[in-house]
Amino acid sequence: MKVLVATGSKYGATREVGRAIAEELVALGFDVDCEDACDVKTVRYYDAIVLGSAVYGGLWRRDASGLLRDNLELLKDRALWMFSVGMTSVTEPGQPLDEAEQLAIDAGAHEHYRFDGRLDLELLNFGEKALIRAIKPPVGDFRDFNAVKAWAQRVGADLMALATD
Length: 165
Ligand SMILES: Cc1cc2nc3c(=O)[nH]c(=O)nc-3n(C[C@H](O)[C@H](O)[C@H](O)COP(=O)(O)O)c2cc1C
Description:
Layout: E1 2-8, H1 13-27, E2 31-36, E3 48-56, E4 59-60, H2 62-70, H3 72-76, E5 79-86, H4 99-107, E6 111-116, E7 118-119, H5 126-135, E8 140-141, H6 145-164
Parallel strand pairs: 1-2, 1-3, 3-5, 5-6
Antiparallel strand pairs: 3-4, 7-8
Helix pairs in contact: 1-6
């Protein structure tokens, strides 16, 4: 079974989560491509897609949401899992509600899962730093790779069940 793991990531935290998911699926015996969402032209050649994105201002990165929207018809015939990587402590007043939940409904995803992310002030641009200083969320790396692996194993088990249906 051919699986695509694709991510939209600005500062690399989500890309690393995607890689950990891909490694776990490879260990389970799947044939996996792991790509940045911006490098994926089509999902046509895959049986299943695991698509994730960092969340900024309540929105997915445009390369990940664009990949999903551009492939909505193809995705309806394929198994799709989605994950968001974010820090719920970083929310601005009036920002859009969670975009990914609606995307997951539109695309018929099996699941949309949330992982805690990483906030590294050194990496941020001037405007982002100003925003973070105003909100004062906890900073650091809150990613739990055991939780990521556990989720990937669940996805793998569901995929195996689908394959034998
Ligand atoms: C300016 C800014 C805005 C953010 N907005 C949100 C948000 O609305 N919701 C959320 O859950 N996380 C938010 N985050 C946290 C990021 O999603 C988190 O840092 C994530 O791990 C970044 O992943 P990346 O390194 O792959 O880009 C924000 C972070 C920054 C710097």
